[in-house]
């Protein structure tokens, strides 16, 4: 990767991209092996491991979230923490079998802050630069799985797929048709399941969960 010049500071700035690490063939197994060695941006330095997508390689639905969380980083699998369990419940309630989906994230390494080594690791949202660097992995997953529908989970995934102007509140629960990484795609945006868990009280959490299920039912109807 060659450096480029930062217009703001006039100093060389490394051009982050995962593109050199992405294999041209071999399907999901080859992508997963290669992603484990990705050094396309600095996030790999502190994360435990790469957390690649998982699920049905022939899935009709691909769910795209933000990035791995603490439990995902430790276990090496996406959506295995509390948000993932809530998502599985919401999918089933909406009429989508979680076992027939493919789940992944826009960014494959856990980004966090940590005051001291033994303190809890606090999630930190990835930057646009980090999302862009990781984009070739998501493009490769889409090319292999070829889903009929993409469920966009939250603002970060939306920005990664649809651009920096994406606002989840403006388009959630609707079916969008866009060209993504050179492919015509249908997408249904909704909130990230972690936002349901962050609701302040039981009443708000119930309403937030109901909204997530309602959006996922739109996705289920779009599949026919």
Blueprint (SSEs and pairs):
Layout: E1 3-5, E2 12-14, H1 27-35, E3 54-55, E4 61-65, H2 70-75, H3 82-94, E5 101-105, E6 112-113, E7 122-123, H4 128-145, E8 149-153, H5 155-162, H6 168-171, E9 176-180, E10 183-190, H7 193-197, H8 202-223
Parallel strand pairs: 4-5, 4-8, 8-10
Antiparallel strand pairs: 1-2, 3-5, 6-7, 9-10
Helix pairs in contact: 1-4, 3-8
Describe the structure.
- The chain has 224 residues and is of the alpha/beta class.
- The chain has a single domain, classed as Uracil-DNA glycosylase-like domain (Uracil-DNA Glycosylase, subunit E), CATH 3.40.470.10.
- The chain is built from eight helices and ten strands.
- The protein has helices spanning 27-35, 70-75, 82-94, 128-145, 155-162, 168-171, 193-197, 202-223; strands spanning 3-5, 12-14, 54-55, 61-65, 101-105, 112-113, 122-123, 149-153, 176-180, 183-190.
- The strands form three sheets. A six-stranded mixed β-sheet has the order 3-5-4-8-10-9. Strands 1-2 form a two-stranded antiparallel ribbon.
- A hairpin with a 2-residue loop joins strand 9 and strand 10.
- The radius of gyration is 17 Å and the shape is globular.
- It comes from Streptomyces spiralis.
């Amino acid at each position: 990767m060659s450096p480029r010049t930062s217009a703001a500071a006039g100093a060389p700035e490394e051009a982050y991209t995962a593109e050199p690490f992405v294999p041209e063939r071999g399907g999901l197994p080859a992508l997963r092996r290669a992603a484990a060695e990705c050094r396309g941006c600095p996030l790999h330095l502190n994360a435990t491991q790469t957390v690649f997508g998982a699920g049905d390689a022939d899935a009709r639905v691909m769910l795209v979230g933000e990035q791995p969380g603490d439990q995902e980083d430790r276990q090496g699998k996406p959506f295995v923490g509390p948000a993932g369990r809530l998502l599985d419940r919401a999918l089933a309630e909406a009429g989508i079998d979680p076992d027939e989906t493919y789940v992944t994230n826009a960014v494959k390494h856990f980004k966090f802050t940590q005051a001291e080594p033994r303190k809890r690791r606090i999630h930190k949202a990835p930057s646009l630069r980090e999302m862009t660097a990781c984009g070739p992995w998501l493009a490769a997953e889409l090319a292999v799985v070829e889903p009929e529908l993409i469920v966009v989970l939250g603002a970060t995934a939306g920005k990664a797929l649809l651009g920096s102007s994406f606002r989840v509140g403006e388009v959630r629960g609707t079916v969008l048709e866009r060209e993504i990484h050179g492919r015509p795609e249908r997408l249904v945006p909704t909130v990230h399941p972690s936002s349901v868990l962050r609701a302040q009280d039981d009443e708000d959490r119930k309403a937030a969960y109901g909204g997530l299920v309602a959006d996922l039912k739109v996705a289920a109807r779009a599949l026919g």
